[in-house]
Structures are given as structure tokens and as C-alpha cells.
Amino acid sequence: MNVLRSESEERGGPLLEPNTILPIQFFSTRGACRWTGEQRLMAAILEDAIAVYSKSSAPKGSKARQILRETERWLRSKDRTWTFSFLRVCEMLSLDPVAIRRALRDRRDRQSAEAASPIPARFASEIEYHAAVG
What are the φ and ψ backbone dihedral angles of 117, each rounded to 5 degrees? Predict the structure, then answer.
């Protein structure tokens, strides 16, 4: 029995047939975040805490002061038993908690110094002081 060979079989068989890849298969893994849902939630919690702690103005209302106190307590906590404690969040996101605390403290100190100064820090270096000659 003579069977006619298909054109693809003559060129190398099924081994050389092109694979079809859909765009969703190609682009779904490229550039996608490698974090799990829990890690994204932890990153959002940390981002919110940093935003609350870093506000340049002092909280005006009692609720805002309470939120700031709770945020400061959360950032200073050494608790590792709670899943969403500061140390566990940093651990899950591969962040250095000491470096984050130091950077936040430095930012807070810098904001306090700028708020206490009557001249904004960016203009302080431009002002020349002259001694009064009498």
C-alpha cells in the first residue's frame, strides 16, 4: 500500500513542526510580580504604615493621633508570633527591619528639624549672614 506522505513528514516529521504559543501564555509570566497574595498584602500594610509615620504635619484629631501611636508601636514591636507583625512582614518581603526603622527615624528627625527652622532648609544655605557693624 502506497501511502502519500504529507509535506510535514517529508521535511522531518512532527519534530520540526512549529509550536503555537498564545499571547497569554507568553506574556503571562513576563513582568509578572513574583509575590504571592499574602506578600502583596504585607507590602500594602508596610506601605500604609510608612505613609502614616512619615506625614510631615502633626496629627490634628484624636483619631489621627491614636493611629499614629499604633503605627509607631507596630514599627517598634519585636513580636514575631503574629503573622502580620512588623518583623514578620519584613522577613516575608526580604527587607531589613533595622534599616527601615533607621530610615524612618532619620526622615522624621529631618522633618522635625525643617519644621522647627524658620527658614526652609533648601534656602538656608543661600542666605548670607553679615555681622552688624556699629
Answer: -75, 130
